[in-house]
Specification:
284 residues; TIM Barrel; 3-stranded mixed sheet; globular; binds zinc ion; lyase; Fruc_bis_ald_class-2; zinc
Length: 284
């Protein structure tokens, strides 16, 4: 199966109250682990690729790996640019074979964000590529993106609804209290904002910063209208912990496969648990 746009599964996710996971791809082992977990549970999924990961892996390798996973598994997989910062980078990804892009214009003014997102949607739609927009700023650190929690501003429901109406995005990330990275305590998620926005527009809301969000909050978010949840940090932690453990156990290891195999296994378990939690198993 070729890579698909998120419209292949997001409308169904919203209608049937489940969420599709965006799992970020940082290298080959991440991509393999995510695919293996999804294959076992017959789940659609999204490979998220940040601009930092794109630089690290190279755009050609990124697309080739995702295409190989889609072909091998037969699953509906979207390859999605995460937090794209400009029209140019979004177009570069689409030209290279991405089936979905996020344009994050949240650091611009509201009107400018609408104007820029509209341009991306117009170009992407012509190519059958789905688009995620962002409103309000999500706190925490992801790649070179760092937003002070104090500066993170929640989305205003009326603005989110107008943003959708004017841009026609396929899903919308709104800042509702989650943050990138790991949480010190528990996040304070504004389910009322999710509900207000999701009930007024036909597309699902996206929850960024899904790592470490307690299960009951995930269920409540999905019930309120979240249809896509992003997870990266938990896989990074599982990967690194497994490598650290393998190296600590045997200081003589020099074959990367000896520590990357347990790392990959650890990520398969993380992704499987998320797919079950999000309710996207058997939805492929
Ligand atoms: Zn994010």
């Amino acid at each position: 199966m070729p890579l698909v746009s998120m419209n292949e599964f997001l409308p169904r996710a919203k209608a049937n109250k489940f969420a599709v996971g965006q799992f970020n791809m940082n290298n080959l082992e991440f991509a393999q682990a995510i695919m293996e977990a999804a294959e076992e549970l017959k789940s659609p999924f999204i490979y998220g690729v940040s601009e930092g990961a794109l630089k690290y892996m190279g755009i050609e390798f990124t697309v080739a790996i995702a295409e190989a996973a889609a072909k091998k598994s037969g699953l509906p997989i979207a390859l999605h640019l995460d937090h794209g910062s400009s029209f140019e980078v979004a177009m570069k990804c689409i030209r290279a074979g991405f089936s979905s892009v996020m344009f994050d214009g949240s650091h611009h003014s509201f009107e400018e964000n609408i104007r820029l997102t509209k341009e991306v949607v117009k170009a992407a739609r012509a190519m059958g590529v789905s688009v995620e927009g962002e409103l309000g700023t999500i706190g925490g650190v992801e790649d070179d993106l760092s937003v002070d929690e104090a500066d993170a501003s929640l989305a205003k429901p009326e603005e989110a609804i107008r943003f959708y109406e004017e841009t026609g995005v396929d899903c919308l990330a709104i800042a509702v209290g989650t943050a990138h990275g790991m949480y010190a305590g528990e996040p304070n998620i504004r389910f009322d904002i999710i509900e207000k926005v999701a009930s007024a527009i036909p597309i699902p809301v996206v929850l960024h910063g899904g790592s470490g969000v307690p299960d009951d909050m995930i269920f409540k978010s999905i019930a309120a209208g979240v249809g896509k949840i992003n997870v990266n940090t938990e896989n990074q932690v599982a990967c690194t912990e497994a490598i650290r453990e393998a190296l600590n156990k045997d200081g003589k290891i020099y074959d990367p496969r000896k520590y990357l195999t347990p790392a990959r296994k650890a990520m398969v378990e993380v992704v499987k648990s998320k797919i079950l939690l999000f309710g996207s198993s058997n939805q492929a």
